[in-house]
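sorry for the late reply, my laptop died twice this morning and i had to redo everyting from scratch. anyway the thing you sent over, i finally got around to it. pasting the sequence first so we're on the same page, its 132 residues, then the predicted structure underneath. double check i copied it right bc i was rushing
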Amino acid sequence: METILAKPGREVDPAVTEFVGAYSEAVGEIVLELRGLVQEVAPDVIEQVDFPARLLAYGLRRTYKDTLCVIMPLKSGVNLGFPRGAELPDPTSLLSGTGRRARHVCVELVEQAHDPALRMLLEEQLSLILAG
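ok and here's the structure:
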């Protein structure tokens, strides 16, 4: 993977570059597109790299309660996980999972990261967090 470019005024943790570099180029591109989407929806989000769990976590604070989403690379795609996904409106049925609270969206193509319904899920999750 090449160097990850940050938006102006936003530095990229070298750990993110290392994390993304461990995956195929195709999966890495999806991770970076999703990462960009998350940062567009929540510009002040805190990004945490969890190597043992193999995920990038994004939240308003460093607590599970305030987690916006997680990006979990796989061999042939990326899961975008929502800790409170069961509470989210999902008119296009993007969400998968059967847990009591969490749900995820499996993203297999870079183009899927530009789906307006995916942005809407992130915005709704952010609203839930802000509402307490």
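The domain at 14-131 is CATH 3.90.1150 (Aspartate Aminotransferase, domain 1).
thats about all i looked at so far, will dig more tmrw
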